[in-house]
């Protein structure tokens, strides 16, 4: 089943190469996203890590659903599990 992306939110850090790659991915696809720097929003980061048992960044949400990190989202895009109606 394919999903149309409406909203993307990336929790990441400027020092993280996978976070930079995630931002580049969505920018290159011309998909708007919200970027939250976890170094400036530690409480949000801690809450997400606890809720989803996820210790690394980026943490990528699509339409409010946690989809994983950069590698997870890239694989879902390649396989067609996530797509964009542009």
UniProtKB/TrEMBL annotation:
<feature type="domain" description="Glutaredoxin">
    <location>
        <begin position="8"/>
        <end position="66"/>
    </location>
</feature>
<keyword id="KW-0813">Transport</keyword>
<dbReference type="GO" id="GO:0015035">
    <property type="term" value="F:protein-disulfide reductase activity"/>
</dbReference>
<dbReference type="InterPro" id="IPR011767">
    <property type="entry name" value="GLR_AS"/>
</dbReference>
<comment type="similarity">
    <text>Belongs to the glutaredoxin family.</text>
</comment>
<dbReference type="Pfam" id="PF00462">
    <property type="entry name" value="Glutaredoxin"/>
</dbReference>
<keyword id="KW-0249">Electron transport</keyword>
<dbReference type="InterPro" id="IPR002109">
    <property type="entry name" value="Glutaredoxin"/>
</dbReference>
<dbReference type="InterPro" id="IPR036249">
    <property type="entry name" value="Thioredoxin-like_sf"/>
</dbReference>
<dbReference type="InterPro" id="IPR014025">
    <property type="entry name" value="Glutaredoxin_subgr"/>
</dbReference>
<dbReference type="GO" id="GO:0005739">
    <property type="term" value="C:mitochondrion"/>
</dbReference>
<keyword id="KW-0676">Redox-active center</keyword>
<keyword id="KW-1015">Disulfide bond</keyword>
<protein>
    <recommendedName>
        <fullName>Glutaredoxin domain-containing protein</fullName>
    </recommendedName>
</protein>
């Amino acid at each position: 089943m394919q999903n149309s992306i409406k909203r993307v939110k990336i929790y990441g850090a400027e020092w993280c190469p996978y976070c930079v790659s995630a931002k580049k991915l969505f920018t290159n696809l011309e998909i708007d996203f919200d970027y939250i720097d976890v170094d400036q929003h530690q409480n949000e980061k801690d809450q997400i890590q606890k809720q989803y048992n996820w210790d690394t960044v980026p943490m990528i949400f699509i339409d409010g659903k946690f989809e994983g990190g950069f590698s997870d989202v890239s694989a879902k895009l390649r396989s067609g599990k996530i797509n964009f109606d542009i």
